[in-house]
Amino acid sequence: MGLLQIQQNNELPGVNHKLYKSARMAIRKNTWKPLELQDLIHNGTMSKEMALFLCTCVKARLNIVVSGGTGAGKTTLVNALSTFIPKEERNLIGDVRGNDVREIFRKENKELDGFLATGHSSSPSNMIDRLEIIAYLEGMNRPINEIRNKIVGTIDIIVHLSRSNAGIRKITKITEVQGIKGENIVLRDIFTVNPLEGTY
């Protein structure tokens, strides 16, 4: 903490110096440290089992999309998970939108194996719907079944975060993108929060 001391004879604009013999101003410099997985376990964002599973997925180079609303903690989680990827191999896409969708759906783009991305959605299934819409609006001009095949062939895991009215951030679902049955993408929840008890 640095201290700026204003002596009696020094003038400060907007201050009535007749009222104050001297004044002292404290300037605080906050040190910001990114949260680690252990921090997210401690604050209740995830369980130990979730952390172990996600670390295993990252090290296995699975493609993971972290979904949720604004302020749910998506970027915080991605940053924590990215520490388990060697620097030279990191593929952090950020918020999936526009050209990013076209890029990750390029079948020949092998460099994107093991990426971490974020996306705004209300659930894992809603994340899939949004990806379909974005791909269509980006002019991929492909049949919906082909777009769904690309989603299934590209994304392995969706981690969904929610933020309560009290500001508590929590992983509510970790979902596997399994494949396609008929015309629909099949999702399987691996972890899910109990909405009544708040337990996993």
From TrEMBL:
Transmembrane segments: none annotated. Coiled coil: none annotated. GO terms for molecular function: ATP hydrolysis activity. It comes from the Bacteria. Residues 23-93 form the Bacterial type II secretion system protein E domain. PANTHER family: TWITCHING MOTILITY PROTEIN PILT, TYPE IV PILUS RETRACTATION ATPASE PILT. Belongs to the GSP E family. This is Pilus assembly protein CpaF. It comes from Neobacillus niacini.
